[in-house]
Specification:
Number of helices: 9
Helix content: 40-55%
Shape: elongated
Structural class: mainly alpha
Distance between the termini: 63 Å
Largest sheet: 2 strands, antiparallel
Number of strands: 2
Length: 215
């Protein structure tokens, strides 16, 4: 790559950064200058950060908004305020957990629990909206919204159909996902495969075969 192209890319990155800084300052009411972001030198934009607490600390409204909707915290804001999973506060106020980092950790933990429960990879990112909710699946989808009460009351659900492709497996997976999201445990298994595995282990003398009692 020629030096001219390298310099052009560097200039473009500086223009983008200066624009981001100016946008943040305008959003916070620190400046109301009509000057276009690219007309402000990067050094001057960076200087505004150093002379304004408005870009050093997140305000209370922003923190409340991010806590309610972590996805509303933009990557620029995350890079700007988050320091190792914490958002510093002015003076002697203790730092607060970063909502974006916390949501990411919770999502990773949930995914690990779903996999451990036997939720197939195809269904880790699938929702009820991806499934044609013909009766009675529509009622099951609605029931997943208050699954805590259903588990607490000890109800059971049986879905049966002699036809394939009716959504039974996906419905079972999404019910397990709903239970895990609600803080319960779940285990997904295929009884036919389980029975075959037990049967195939009858002649195994190694001690590693799946026994009926364990199944």
């Amino acid at each position: 790559m020629s030096e001219a192209l390298i310099q052009e890319e560097k200039t473009q990155r500086e223009i983008t950064l200066a624009k981001d800084i100016m946008d943040q300052l305008r959003l916070r009411g620190v400046i109301s200058s009509p000057v276009a972001p690219y007309e402000l030198p990067l050094e001057q934009a960076l200087g505004l950060i150093q002379t304004s607490d408005a870009l050093l600390y997140a305000n209370e409204d922003e923190l409340r908004g991010w806590s309610a909707r972590p996805e509303s915290m933009t990557p620029i804001q995350h890079e700007q305020f988050c320091q190792g999973g914490l958002i510093p506060q002015p003076g002697t106020h203790p730092a607060v957990p970063c909502p974006r980092c916390r949501a990411k950790d919770e999502q990773a933990n949930l995914r690990a629990r779903l996999i451990a429960a036997g939720v197939d990879g195809r269904y880790l990112d699938t929702t009820w909206e991806n499934l044609e909710q013909l009766a009675p699946l529509d009622r099951l989808a609605g029931a997943c919204g208050h699954i805590r009460d259903i588990v607490k009351e000890g109800h059971s659900v049986l879905i049966w159909s002699s036809e394939t492709g009716t959504g039974k497996t996906q419905a079972a997976m999404l019910t397990a996902v709903a239970a895990i999201r609600a803080g319960h445990t779940a285990h997904v298994t295929n009884l036919a495969r389980l029975a075959i595995e037990v049967r195939d282990g009858y002649g195994d003398r190694s001690g590693n075969a799946l026994k009926e009692s364990k199944a």
